[in-house]
């Protein structure tokens, strides 16, 4: 039977709750409480670091304070990223028991980056992937991603710059790469939801050999996310 992914679309401005739902999905999908899920989401302005907090070195903390940007933590490793409503976040969380075979971080990254490159092609852009660095158009980064492989679930999630505030991004982060919005690269105004969300969902589903099913967040999932808010706060170290 083909993999089935529940499609969730959220545009909450509550930055902690958005990140807490990522922690909740790892737990709830792995336990079978929630179905395997493809989530598309936008977030209020904030900076997000990796699970261990080591990528705090990439964050200009004083600039974040001046800009009023919270600094939060996600359940995967990797570098610091900037979120706002012009950045379309995407998340694929799959229960291991539903995978046709084990998928390790390299394969999760390969499949997700292939989906993003397919989307770029659809927009008339030529993209390429660099392992553990992200997806680029020319020499400019448009998407970063991170992976998690647990005992019962896998997750790959990332960013896609569509119409983000790049001046705020550059002020908040010590950027390793030049960055660009798809709107600029495509030469036309693009909206994350109206123009990019559905094609991205379709490319990600195909990359994982999955069918999409419209879904919604259950009350139990939201309650679990509320309880996991502390995990998003820098300084609160995750368990093993």
Structure commentary:
The structure is a single chain. The chain is α/β, with parallel strands linked by helices and 240 residues long. It has one domain (3-232): Bira Bifunctional Protein, Domain 2 (BirA Bifunctional Protein, domain 2, 2-Layer Sandwich), CATH 3.30.930.10. It contains 7 helices and 13 strands. It has helices at 15-31, 61-67, 105-122, 166-172, 182-186, 192-207, 219-227, and strands at 3-10, 37-41, 46-49, 71-73, 81-83, 89-95, 127-130, 134-137, 140-143, 145-149, 153-158, 178-179, 210-214. The strands form 3 sheets. The protein has a 6-stranded mixed β-sheet, with helices on both faces. The chain has a 4-stranded mixed β-sheet with strand order 7-8-9-12, covered by helices on one side. A 3-stranded mixed β-sheet has the order 4-3-5, sandwiched between helices. Helix 1 (15-31) packs across helix 7 and helix 3 packs across helix 6 (192-207). The chain is globular, with a radius of gyration of 17 Å. Mean pLDDT is 96; it is low at 236-240.
Question: Which features would summarize this protein structure in a list?
Answer:
alpha/beta, BirA Bifunctional Protein, domain 2, disordered C terminus, 4-stranded mixed beta sheet, 240 residues, globular, 7 helices
What secondary-structure arrangement, pairings included, does this model have?
Elements: E1 3-10, H1 15-31, E2 37-41, E3 46-49, H2 61-67, E4 71-73, E5 81-83, E6 89-95, H3 105-122, E7 127-130, E8 134-137, E9 140-143, E10 145-149, E11 153-158, H4 166-172, E12 178-179, H5 182-186, H6 192-207, E13 210-214, H7 219-227
Helix pairs in contact: 1-7, 3-6
